[in-house]
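ok so for the tutorial part 2 we go from a plain amino acid sequence to predicted structure tokens. step 1 is just haveing the sequence, like this:
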Amino acid sequence: MPEKNWKIKDLLSVAADYLRQKEIENHRLTAEVLLGHSLKLERIGLYLNFDKPLTHGEVSDFRKLIQRRIGHEPLQYITGQQEFWSLDFEVNCNVLVPRPETEVLLEQAIDLAKTVPVSSERPLRILDLCTGSGVISVVAAREMDDVHVWATDISQDALE
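step 2 — the prediction. this is what the tokens look like for a chain of 160 residues:
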């Protein structure tokens, strides 16, 4: 039997349905993100190339990503990226995936820092213990004036 010739639109549809059957949340979005990652396209690029035929290798690579997600590996670990504070951060199994609640924490910390008198002679000091992906220290350094930020982690793999 000849092998099926897959197009982006067909593969997205089948993958989204398969992820739904496997009770993966946001099954359509997950399929789009994984196929976009696999093909090195933004999600909009998938729709602009909806009828593009895919090679056997492209389909095979995508299937491997789907299997990882079916195994409940976080989407962010599969893609290696997590958006946080409108910035892209590298993530992997050596760090925790940054959570939306951490953005709320940072907003409050930034507001609180505005009430502390600081100067270049007496900067605000922040210590980010167990920094992991570094989102807290990076955002704090970007958003606060006259601040010295130290970030540390016991895990050398996380620091790398």
